[in-house]
Amino acid sequence: MPSGRLMRIHSAEFQAMAARVLRVTELTSRLNVLPFEDEAGKAELFAQILGRPLPARVTIYPPFYTDHGLNLDLAERVFINQNCTFLDYAGIRLAERVMVGPKVTFITSGHPVDPGERRLYLTGAPIDVAENVWIGAGATILPGVSIGRDAVIAAGAVVADDVPPATLVTGAKATTRRQW
After folding, report:
1. 111 is a catalytic site residue
2. Using CA atoms, how far apart are residues 135 and 166, in angstroms rounded to an integer?
3. Which of 6, 35, 106, 163 has the fewest CB atoms nearer than 10 Å to its CB?
4. What's this model's pTM, rounded to 2 decimal places?
5. Which SUPFAM superfamilies does this one have (predicted)?
6. Interatomic CA distance for residues 52 and 75, integer angstroms
């Protein structure tokens, strides 16, 4: 899904995406019950999930979850801890040396805010994480966010806006924006 575009639910594009989600859910279910030391089994399943082998020196500790897999771009020396979720349909890129703590969630798709459109469309925008970023445990990265080189996202932070390079981001306070 290109940045900022709406995808109509019940379209051919949506049906193809839904079929991929079911397939990847099956693959991640199998991945997440393998013995930890089964490197060959994990490598085979990651290749099917991502549509290509994991890059050199990428470490991912299961359990691992993704809804699409084909739009997850991992550079070398990326580290992903346990129980992370990548909803990657609109694209997620993690550059070299990115470290992702446990239970981090990346979300690239959602629904319109307008209640009349909410069940008719999916929205989406890619997430881009630059080199040497550290994302702390339980952080959530929302659609369309870019995180600059050397930034640190504190544990539990909800990131809805771009993060400049070499910046510490904290906080998860919800704010009322408007009412219907």
Report:
1. yes
2. 13
3. 35
4. 0.92
5. Trimeric LpxA-like enzymes
6. 13
